[in-house]
């Protein structure tokens, strides 16, 4: 039974067939546009290497001419890669970002996932106030992190957010363009510091890539356990102290159930090395389409955490508040048997 003390800040109309069609289509387009270009690039590199070997084996006057043509091909290819790298690392114009966020298709994602925002603590800071929004857990695909900053409905709750995303995502064209559209920030110290110095608010998932692998069916983890990797993740608290800005704890119920994964030897190690998800994941019908979760995707927001006397004290306060909102809301969500484990 709904708790009258839980304040719903946002909820969406039921999902329609049109919404499902839009989510499936755009999910497939994003997957293809992110994976196909790197594959074609690798194939072309292999082709260039093989061509060079064939030229080296040749004899006669034509060899120098063909070698010159090969060098020109390499120069053009390298120039194209450099141009793409410079473009994708640049910040998109404000006009493009506004256009991207206003696309109607994002509303279909919110309805498809039955997204809602529930407040369990006192009033949030005003949308114009600088803050750090923490989205927990990361999930196999960070849908909840991206959706926290994707439309004007979310903006009315906590203001404009710049999502902190792994730098490796920039090499995947479709995903990189999406991150530019939502004004993402590269997850390195220099870029995050620059964003905060400029007065921006940021949305971050502290657990990052490694948290993806801390879920069932990983050995030692029960199906009734939800894992949050926070014990050694204090960077966002240090930023809170450095810039004197509050942290908003937010646990997203359903985020860990949007996709499934297949474990294979070395996947976790490789993912940590390259700071990207290098494992096999799937959703509905075995496609890169998120599952619709019973209960929906619910952002549960707790009491705002302000910088304390020191980082350790503030971090402990944050973890306690996260546990509190999980325990208080899990029954209403239908997760009575679940427990939140902070590692």
Structural notes for this entry:
It is a single chain. α7 links the parallel β4 and β5. The protein has one domain (7-38, 91-342). It has an eight-stranded mixed sheet with strand order 1-2-11-8-3-6-4-5, sandwiched between helices. Strands 7-12 form a two-stranded parallel ribbon. It has twelve helices and twelve strands. Helices cover 47% and strands 15% of the residues.
User: What class do helices, strands and sheet pairing give?
Assistant: alpha/beta
**What is the CA-based Rg, rounded?**
23 Å
Gross geometry: elongated
Helix share, percent = 40-55%
Largest sheet: 8 strands, mixed
Order of helices and strands: EHHHHEEHHEHEHEHEHEEHEEHE
First-to-last CA distance = 31 Å
| Overall average pLDDT | 91
Strand order of the largest sheet: 1-2-11-8-3-6-4-5
User: What portion of the residues fall into strands of 2 or more residues?
Assistant: 5-15%
Total strands: the figure is 12
> What multimeric state do the chains show?
single chain
Count of distinct structural domains: 1
Count of DSSP helices? 12
Stretches where pLDDT is under 50 for at least 5 consecutive residues are none
Question: What attributes does this structure have?
Answer:
343 residues, alpha/beta, 8-stranded mixed sheet, two-stranded parallel sheet, 12 helices, 12 strands, 15% strand
Topology, pairings included?
Layout: E1 7-11, H1 17-57, H2 62-89, H3 94-101, H4 105-112, E2 116-119, E3 132-136, H5 143-147, H6 152-158, E4 161-165, H7 173-181, E5 185-186, H8 189-197, E6 201-204, H9 208-212, E7 225-228, H10 235-243, E8 247-253, E9 260-262, H11 267-274, E10 280-282, E11 298-301, H12 311-333, E12 339-342
Parallel strand pairs: 2-11, 3-6, 3-8, 4-5, 4-6, 7-12
Antiparallel strand pairs: 1-2, 8-11, 9-10
Helix pairs in contact: 1-2, 1-4, 1-7
Subcellular location: Endoplasmic reticulum membrane
InterPro entries: DAGAT
Protein name: Acyltransferase
């Amino acid at each position: 039974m709904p708790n009258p003390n839980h304040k719903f800040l946002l909820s969406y109309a039921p999902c329609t067939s049109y919404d499902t069609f839009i989510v499936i289509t755009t999910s497939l387009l994003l997957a293809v546009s992110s994976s196909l270009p790197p594959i074609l690039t690798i194939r072309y590199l292999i082709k260039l290497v093989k061509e060079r070997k064939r030229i080296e084996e040749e004899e006669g006057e034509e060899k120098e001419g063909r070698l010159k043509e090969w060098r020109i091909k390499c120069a053009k290819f390298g120039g194209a890669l450099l141009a793409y790298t410079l473009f994708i690392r640049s910040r998109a114009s404000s006009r493009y970002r506004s256009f991207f966020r206003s696309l109607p298709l994002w509303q279909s994602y919110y309805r498809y996932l039955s997204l809602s925002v529930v407040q369990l603590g006192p009033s949030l800071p005003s949308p114009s106030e600088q803050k750090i929004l923490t989205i927990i857990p990361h999930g196999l695909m960070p849908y909840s992190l991206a959706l926290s900053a994707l439309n004007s409905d979310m903006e009315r709750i906590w203001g404009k957010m710049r999502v902190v995303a792994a730098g490796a995502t920039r090499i995947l064209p479709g995903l990189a363009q999406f991150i530019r559209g939502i004004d993402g920030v590269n997850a390195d110290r220099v870029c995050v510091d620059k964003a905060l110095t400029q007065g921006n608010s940021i949305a971050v998932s502290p657990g990052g890539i490694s948290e993806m692998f801390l879920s069932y069916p990983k050995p030692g983890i029960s199906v009734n356990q939800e894992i949050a990797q926070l014990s050694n993740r204090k960077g966002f608290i240090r930023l809170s102290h450095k810039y004197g800005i509050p942290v908003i704890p937010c646990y997203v119920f359903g985020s860990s159930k949007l996709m499934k994964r297949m474990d294979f030897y070395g996947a976790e190690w490789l993912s940590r090395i390259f700071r990207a998800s290098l494992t096999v994941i799937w959703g509905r019908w075995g496609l890169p389409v998120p599952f619709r979760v019973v209960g929906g995707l619910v952002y549960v927001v707790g009491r705002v955490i302000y910088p304390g006397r020191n980082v350790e004290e503030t971090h402990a306060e944050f973890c306690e508040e996260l546990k509190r909102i999980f325990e208080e809301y899990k029954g209403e969500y239908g997760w009575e048997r679940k427990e939140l484990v902070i590692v």
